[in-house]
Amino acid sequence: MGIGGSDMYRQQILDHYKNPRNFGEIEDATFTHVGENPMCGDTIEMDVVLDDDEEVIERVAFRGDGCAISQASASMLSEQLTGMPVEDLEEMDRDDVIDMLGVDISPMRVKCAVLAEKVAQDGAEIYFGEKNVDKTTTEDDEE
Ligand code: FES
């Protein structure tokens, strides 16, 4: 699979890939966002349900295709996001995702690893951005 790291983490990634958690759809999601890995064209779509105060993530579902890393990352992230304050999602970065995966990710695969995290973050940014018209955000594709 082209990833290094300990067997335990590799097993965990394979397990999430084969049995993705929270795979599917949530009909009455607070927001839904889809994103693409520009390197390969694979997409992940994510539904997020926030609590009534819109401060905490209550439920997450995702669907899409992609390599083992992207799917396992989406599955693991969906578990991590459940119960997480939206603020914490906004602060996540690629290192948090790589730590979550627990394996070495080659530069070629970083976009696979962070795809789901970008989708969740961009979805939140767009959702809150549209609610607060003065909080304008510019799309820059950070590496
Ligand atoms: Fe497409 Fe990894 S190769 S998401």
List descriptors.
143 residues, alpha+beta, Sufe protein. Chain: A, 3-stranded antiparallel sheet, 5 helices, 3 strands, globular, Fe-S cluster assembly sulfur transfer protein SufU, NIF_FeS_clus_asmbl_NifU_N
List the helices and strands and how they pair.
Blueprint: H1 7-18, E1 31-36, E2 43-50, E3 57-64, H2 68-81, H3 86-91, H4 94-101, H5 110-131
Antiparallel strand pairs: 1-2, 2-3
Helix pairs in contact: 1-2, 2-5, 4-5
Bound molecules: FE2/S2 (inorganic) cluster.
Strand order of the largest sheet: 1-2-3
Number of strands: 3
CATH architecture tag: Alpha-Beta Complex
Helix content: 40-55%
Strand content: 15-25%
Number of helices: 5
Q: For this structure, what is the CATH class?
A: Alpha Beta
How does the major sheet shape up? 3 strands, antiparallel
Shape: globular
Unique bound compounds: FE2/S2 (inorganic) cluster
CATH topology: Sufe protein. Chain: A
Mean pLDDT: 91
Poorly predicted regions:
none
Q: Give the termini distance in whole angstroms.
A: 23 Å
Assign the structural class, choosing from mainly alpha, mainly beta, alpha/beta, alpha+beta, or little secondary structure: alpha+beta
Number of domains: 1
Radius of gyration: 15 Å
Describe the overall structure:
- The chain is of the alpha+beta class.
- The chain has a single domain (2-138), classed as Sufe protein. Chain: A, CATH 3.90.1010.10.
- It contains 5 helices and 3 strands, in the order αβββαααα.
- The protein has helices spanning 7-18, 68-81, 86-91, 94-101, 110-131, and strands at 31-36, 43-50, 57-64.
- The protein has a 3-stranded antiparallel sheet, with helices on one face.
- A hairpin with a 6-residue loop joins strand 2 (43-50) and strand 3 (57-64).
- The model has no long low-confidence stretch (mean pLDDT 91).
- The structure holds FE2/S2 (inorganic) cluster (FES).
- The site of FE2/S2 (inorganic) cluster (FES) has 9 residues, from helix 2 and helix 5.
- FE2/S2 (inorganic) cluster binds at residues 37, 40, 42, 66-67, 69-70, 112, 115.
